[in-house]
Design a protein that fits this description.
By secondary structure, the chain is an alpha/beta fold. It has one domain (9-186, 224-250): NAD(P)-binding Rossmann-like Domain (Rossmann fold, 3-Layer(aba) Sandwich), CATH 3.40.50.720. It is 47% helix and 15% strand. It contains eight helices and seven strands. The chain has helices spanning 18-29, 41-55, 69-78, 102-130, 151-171, 189-198, 204-216, 225-235; strands spanning 9-13, 33-38, 59-63, 84-88, 133-138, 176-183, 247-250. Strands 3-2-1-4-5-6-7 form a seven-stranded parallel β-sheet, with helices on both faces.
Amino acid sequence: MDLGIAGRKALLCGASRGLGKACAVALAREGVAVTIAARTRETLEQTAQEIRDQTGAEVTVVAADITTEQGRAALLAACPEPDILLNNADGPLPGDFRTWTRENWIDALDAMMLGPIDMIRRTVDGMTARRFGRIVNIVSRSVKIAQPELGLSNGARSGLVGFVAGISRQTVASNVTINNLLPGIFDSDAQRRHIRGMIDDVGDRFEQVWHARAAANPARRYGDPEELGAYFAFLCSSKAGFITGQNLLIDGGSYPGTY
């Protein structure tokens, strides 16, 4: 299928590895010029070269902290008129809410709610004027099935989802869609970090938990990041202009609800 986005420009936050990287690769394969952003320049440069080698696409890197005003300004300086925006941020480590301070909460909000909302604010009017825009936030299945050890993520990501529910209905008439992807367990560094944050012993115990989580999923496996990247690319396509304000699960069937 021709997704109809060749020649478009995409700005992807948190795209140096894992699910964000998979999204960048998927767009690059469709002929999109991608600007990838994260904090670590070395990782970004390595990822950018991999994408160039695989796809021949134009790739720009921005090493910046997206939780800061300066970081977000640097992104828009590198890609001032994106047609596609990906908001993606790692969640904090699992923990007990009794130990979290106000600073912990503010950090979580900056990374997973306030920062993404500000990126939407900075890009949505330009997309509206050009009558094409695709904004996708990678959040988490935990906004539908809250995990107690992920309280910081549950709260901040749910705030972003609530915000999107309102604004996405205001922009779709201008062919600007805003949607959320809700991944479950994926074979990624973030998933490994999550498991290590829940256990003391990262040796055999890690392997036990890792395999048990896959076995407990109806698909009996972890998701492949490329699967999420393909889903993301479709949402960014010219074919997806009638999809907005949706929270789209990609979790191997682990969400048990009917709706």
